[in-house]
Specification:
Radius of gyration: 17 Å
Strand order of the largest sheet: 1-2-3-4-5-6-7-8
Largest sheet: 8 strands, parallel, barrel
Order of helices and strands: EHEHEHEHHEHHHEHHEHEH
Number of helices: 12
Distance between the termini: 14 Å
Shape: globular
Helix content: 40-55%
Bound molecules: 1,3-dihydroxyacetonephosphate
Strand content: 15-25%
Amino acid sequence: MRKVIIAGNWKMNKNISESIDLANGIQRSVYDVDSVEIVVCPPYTSLGDVREVIASTNVKMGAQDVYWEAEGAFTGEVSCGMLKSVGCEYVIIGHSERRQFFGETNETVNKKTKAALKNGLKPIVCVGEKLEERNAGKAFQVVKDHVENSLSGISKQDMLNVVIAYEPVWAIGTGVNATKEQAQEIHKYIRELLAKMFDPEVAKSIRIQYGGSVKPDNIAELISQPDVDGALVGGASLKVDSFVAIVKNCV
Ligand code: 13P
């Protein structure tokens, strides 16, 4: 019922020619995959060129952030309309690196998510606890805070276009992924929260990705969990072979 979604978050990597090569390599290798939704999220500077590469393929594109205002004097920011016009279907919102380095809060994540939905972009909303929070037994509490406050005031109908990415901060870029049990326990908890906030049917339809040191050799066991519906991949999305292997291990 929930189609698996594998998204590559390229972060601040790849110039234009490198982006074209990576997108091309991916696109050529996954043309026959239809059971997995495949998304690449290049940096802003490469969106226009990657759009050309993936046009008429089964690879979709997302951005890594967005601003909530439509236009105006907001130097350095990019609007939802701009992302739509360059061919984005998705946008990552509230990544832990933005929360950590760029002052992103649940409140700004909420504003961005609402703006994305209003403009027909599908948000991938990131949540997840830090190591010290997990060690203090606060993982559930932090995830609850992120989910409830990042998604407050969104209609049930709009929620059907939201993807949630559970990315425990301690697993990002560390090579230490959450075990399948750790991932499943939080994903199940997120789905229960969604059932309370919206309704059980909506909760059943929403895809929850896992992110944090996802690799070709751990994706199969993660994706085998009942509430893990895909992955948001960082490092392993920067090479054709590893990203494609992750996608193919979900088929
Ligand atoms: P890594 O896959 O490099 O751990 O990054 C995960 C991530 O932050 C994806 O958004």
